[in-house]
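Before relying on records like the one below, remember that each one covers exactly one chain. Contacts with other chains, cofactors or solvent are not represented anywhere in the record.
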Amino acid sequence: MSGTSSLSFATSEIESEAAKLITQREDLEPSRDLDAFLVQFCEDANMDDFAAFNAADSARLAVDLFAFGMEAALEPLPRRRVRVRDCIGADDRKFPRCLIEAVGPDTPFLVDSAIAAILASGAEIRAVVHPVIHRDDGDISTIQIHTEHLDAGQRRKLKEALEAAFADVSLATADFLAMRQAMKDAAVRVSTTPVAKGRTASDVEEAEEFLNWLVRDHFIFLGARDYRYARGADGSFLAEEPDVVEGSGLGVLRDPHRHVLSRGSEPALLTPQIKAFLDEAPPIIVSKTNMRSLVHRRVYADYIGVKRYDDSGNVIGETRFVGLFTSDAYTRMARDVPLIRSKVEIVKARLEANGADYSARALNNVLETYPRDELFQIEPAELEKIASGVLGLMQRPRTRIFVRRDRFDRFVSMLLYTPRDNYTPELRKRVHTLLAEAFDGRESAFYPSFNDGPLARVHYIVGLTPGHPEPDIDALDIEIRQMAESWEDALARAARLAGTPREDLGQIRFNAAFKEAFTPDQALKDLAAIDAMQKSHEISVRVRDLPGDSVDAACKIYHHDQPLYLSDIVPVLECMGLRVKAETSYPITFRQDDKTVWVHDITLEQPAGSSPLGSQFSECFEAVWNGYTESDGFNSLVVRQGLSWRQAALMRTLCRYRQQTGLDPSEATQIAALANHSGLASSLLKLFDQRLNPDEGGGLDERRNAQKELIADIRKSLNDVASLDEDRVLRRLMHLIRAIQRTNFYQLAPSTGQPYPYISVKIASGEINDLPSPKPFREIFVWSPMVEGVHLRFGPVARGGLRWSDRRDDFRTEVLGLVKAQNVKNAVIVPVGAKGGFYPKNLPENGSREEIRDAGIAAYKTFISALLEISDNLIDGDATHPDRVIAWDGDDPYLVVAADKGTATFSDIANGLSQDHGWWLGDAFASGGSAGYDHKKMGITARGAWEAVKRHFREIGKDIQNEPFTCIGVGDMSGDVFGNGMLLSRHTHLIAAFNHMHIFIDPSPDAEKSYVERIRLFETPRTGWGDYNTKLISKGGGIFERSAKSITLTDEIKAITGLEVDSVTPDELIRALLLSEFELLWFGGIGTYVKAGEETNADVGDKANNALRVNGGELKVSIIGEGANLGVTQKGRIEFARKGGRINTDAIDNSAGVDSSDHEVNIKILLTEAIRQGELPVADRNALLADMTDEVAEHVLRNNYKQTGALSMLEMSAADDLDAYGELMTTLESEGKLARDVEDLPSVETMTALREQGAGLTRPEISVLFAYAKNDLFNGVVEGDAPDQPALQFLLEDYFPSQLRKYDKVRNSHRLKREIIATRIVNRLVNLSGPFFPYQMRDAAAVDISTLAKASETARAVFQIDALMERIEALDNQVPAISQLLMMREIAGTMRQLTGAFIGPVRAGKDLQKIFDTYTSAGKELSGQLDTTLSPFVLERIETRAQAYIEAGAPETLAGDVARLRILATLKETADCAIAEGWPVRPAACVKHALAERLGVDPLRAAARDLGLDGHWERLAQQRVMDAIPGQLASLTAAAMAHATQNGVSPDAIDREAAREVVDDWLNACGGDVDRVAQSAANFEASGTWTLAKLVLVSDGLREFVQNHGKSV
């Protein structure tokens, strides 16, 4: 063996190893013989066979074989030696093989005889090599055959078998020439055979030619022997032993015990058959021996008998040759083989003479393909008969048997012909058995044959024993014909009997295996099942009957075109609780349709106690396969309890929801609980039916009553559940079902009339105890085979995006975390927080981006549809429930969504579904679509978060729009938030960033060049950091794959990170970067990367980033901008803020997205109504929407600016306001609106500790309370009449872009008008006054929130607070931020006082517009004359405040205006006095301030405002003193003014000095009470320190004085 498959390529290496071995052996030395041997060995060894060996092993095997061969070669008389041993390689290493080695003189037939012997033993051959040692004194053959490991007994038997085979080889080869000569001699003798006794010259000539033909390499000689036969006086053969001619034995027949014909001894008595042969004319006979050849091939040897004649032509003996026809003898054409050719010619001539109707070509085919051994042995007459019969079968194919008996009665040879389609292995076996039984013989051999004709043929050999019966061949033939009846004919007959005849049966093909396995009746059932298959379905399933006593089950699965993989089928069945015991696949071909259906027959073992399989099993399997349901353990309920697959899917849905809560046992436990308690499972389904099935009938009250008894039964049954876990599963399912408000489970899709391929349930979360906090107002859970998802809403009017989640097992936890943030974001908009998440379950493995996107879109569509199916629609303004939905929750039409990513595309998809459903919101259902405001194109989310970042920097003295700053980011430029964010300043020095694929590091970036490159990436679709132009990266930087094993650090990276090692893993590098010094950490990608030190990674719940995550206290960045959600845990934010870091929350920073979406929704609602009323052409809508983009963005970013500014103000006084926050938390907790632990807010104990430390809440904590207050106050405002006030409608008008102001009518009838106004009122109130003030004022003044809101808006209008704030805000980056914050804080503090002043008239129900007009006019009249009106004390305080602002950097004019605002808070009481007494405002103000100066009220008021107190009640008392002073002073002022009027004093003559005279004149009339009030105030002021007690004492004195001398105003 040589070529590429041999070891020739390794010859030199093996020779080298062999040389090493020889040096270690004493029995060998280098030689040419060895070198040549090794070359042969390598050429002969197959590379694959020797794959287990290395070069040293192969050398060891070769050298050992060579040594063994040399042992034989060096013997004086070389002999064949055989050994069977272990396979030993280099270093004596054993291999799990055996080596069979034979060495000795080289002769023919050694290897094939050895192989035949080994195969006959049953051993497996793994390798064969046969190198020859060429020597001058004769070649030595060496054979090495590898087998599997053999035990000692196997080795012994195999060695004996090989020795026997080699002995025969030696005999045959030793006498080869003698035997060939003997045959030549026999041919010569035959040529002289007398032509007599029926013998023709042709017979003699053919016999001679045949023997000579054999000599010409057509016969392998194994043995030869001569015999003499005795005759009696009458010339007949005597029945006595023939004589073996002594010394005539050659080859294997040297052994007198080797037999040719008989099974006993030989020579044998002449049997009648042998006598008949001897009397026949032909001089030779060809037959089979009873001896199996051990040489060359393991088959029965062929026997050539040549008769010997005396001079008279009488047979006197025989020469018997034993051997094997060569392969050439079998492949020669019959016309070329002597002896056979004559028979063939005889047959042809006879058939032609008989006028047989046949084709010459057909006859040639019959004869040429006839078994060659048979042709050698058969007589022409018998061949003629059989050939004629076969020709007839070819013309009309059918089944027949032809029998030929061995002339020596040792066997029967039979040929079975049957139509090819009839042939099956089973038929072949059955016929053989039948024939053997008929002759009482043995099934010796069979040889099937298939040619191009219509018939299949099997050649049977049945061994006979003496005395065997002689069966009726015709009867056998009939029986075999019946046995071989066409299966198709039987099928047609079965169809007729069944009354379902089919014309297409002739076009349907079943293969042999199918027909062997199934009866035609069973096939008819298969055809019926195939006919019933729906064209849209891939498969159909049918339960198959098994014998009555079988404990197994069986089914058939039908599938078009291709067979199914068993590995796909088995898991589905196993999930149903079934065990697959056997499976066989069969194709059924329908020729007329050119299609194939594959039938999979499966035997199954059912779980104990389950019912027989039926249609529900079939439907479940089909549902799984067709993608209608999942394949998991819930399907076992179909088999165990007889549920339908949809009922099992419902149970799966309910359990999956419970799993998503993170509080329930595993899914396996859920399945076990349902499976082990079938009664309870059935009751739970019944409860679901009673509650939600529209076909059950009855109203809600009737259903509620019907459930009571069932619920009681369920609870009673639960007491019998032994397992605590299973009890928990079943009990919680009961509670869940009771909390479900709606479901689509009973709905039917209009297009199909079938149930929807998804299940959605709407849940009143608050009714379930076992849910993590916070609990939504409502949630919808969706299950389908392709997607699962949940939508959480925290109020009837709620909105938020839908996230494509990658968290299969806890997406609800993810969404719950997001919706908490969303609720904070939504504090600036009308709806409260909502959030949805969906997990696509069937994304293509290794799919392209487009394939994954398409699968995600399909899942998204399913999720959206499932939400819409159970939501109310608005038709002509009225809420309408969906068809076949029982609604326990009343009207609920507000469902608004958006997409978290891929906004425009995904929103368009959602809006398309909304419009397809006829949803009242149309394309306002999902904001951000192509006909809307695309967040990424607007960059609105990033721009909103950038407002927070700019403020953080501005407040530490840096203008990042004009000054460089360093930044690290999470995300890449293709992302919305990261990409837009990194383009918002040309001075961004982005030093590091990372996403899920790459790490970007630019140690010393060129700001402008990197900015331009980032623009390129952002504007190029689907880019990542891998697409960044690395030529622009500064020295030491680069783009690094996160999949890399390690990253080599440059000196520059080491300098950035502080790392000292030379290489790190990608995760280690990212972690080091996060801990490095940068000014800004910008979150624009998915993931949570910062936690608190007290938190574990498990607490965070983002396993993918565990290796990267750092603690907030470890960060060295100055500022964190959370453009993306959940980059930092709340505790991580607090920890970062406590150490001085500047951070808000993700909800505050990235609220612009949701704000933009809310504007879009509300604008679209307005425009839809404008279109409906004919005020706006439909075609103009989208252009109008686009035109308003910039103004919408301005509105949205204004909210971000305001909110972050409010937080900065609140942060300044956080320590002072600690108790106020504590009381706010206590209030919200007591009302069930806040859970501190859920929001990571400080406990009461922690608040105490903070107070002791002099610390306050951090910005992240304030942010949460900020939002909670807004959301809570919104409810109070919207429930009151504030949104209905005409004076506040400007808030609605200003909410919309200016282009919409002309649509007054539709704007004023906007469905969410009141909510819009209420939201704006609350935002304005809390942004300016802080989150706790409204609650303080509510409690102190016993006023409702709506009244408080109206008073606040009145104060803003009267004192033009908005304009003043805008003047301050306009100073951004022009003055130090501290000056702005100080002025804003002054305004905020004063606004609390101003608001309190207007509570009275507002509560009295006075028209707001009139209040606005009255006091605004008074303010304008007075504001320019304050310096000539106020007391020196007050003027000094104004000057002090103004100077503080100026010193902080504020402009002088603005500082003065802000400083004077506090005193303007008294305007209301001044104007009230002026109105009451009919005076102008200025003289009234002069009197009031003169009176305040005289009585010491100015110091009292200042002390009441400035005094810092601890404790809620102390502050409440302080607030009441402050609130009482304006009214008290107004009462006294009115009395003084009335006294002056009575005394004839003209108001026009009163200035500051005249006012003092008026006051003194009136006080003198009041007597000694004046001194007590004035003196006590003066004394306390002189003491230098005011306390609450002093305030109360002076206030009490003032109150008493007012009671005695004041006048009602």
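The two ends are 125 Å apart (CA to CA).
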